[in-house]
Amino acid sequence: MAYQETKKIMNEIVADLTQAHMLVHQHHWYMLGRGFLNLHPYLDEVMDELSEQQDGVAERLIEINGSPISTYEEVLEKTNIADQVGSWNLSIEDRFQLIVDAYKQLRDDYERGIKISEDEGDDSTNDLLIAYHTAIEKRIWMMSAELGKRPGDGE
Ligand SMILES: [Fe+2]
């Protein structure tokens, strides 16, 4: 069947985007401390980006005759991002580091997806994944800068 591996990685990306959205929501809710008034609304912007990409990848998957995952059970089975219970006892820096780490997982997912869709000749998916990867890298840079780090620090 056409684009078989592309479809598989796209569902993994949908799982990680869904899980990342929940992670960001958790820190948007549980955040305490200096910077809250700016960083709490900033995370709304981050969640909008994740939702837009989730919908975009899932809809492109349907266009190539795939079936996007659509239950939390499937998300948990496929995601590469750890599930952690919410805690009030984390610094804002720790929270942003966890979000940057999730974004780095998404960056790696997109890099695999870009390679696989290129190998299978699905140019339009390839183009979409490249655009989303670019946005993810920009966000990694900005959130790393907020932490006083370069985007590649810690890798
Ligand atoms: Fe909110």
Automatic annotation (TrEMBL):
CDD domains hit by this protein: DPS
Protein name: DNA starvation/stationary phase protection protein Dps
PANTHER family per record: GENERAL STRESS PROTEIN 20U
Domain annotation Ferritin/DPS: ranges: 8-149
GO molecular function: ferric iron binding; oxidoreductase activity, acting on metal ions
Pfam families registered for this protein in UniProt: Ferritin
Protein family per UniProt: Belongs to the Dps family.
Residues annotated as transmembrane: none
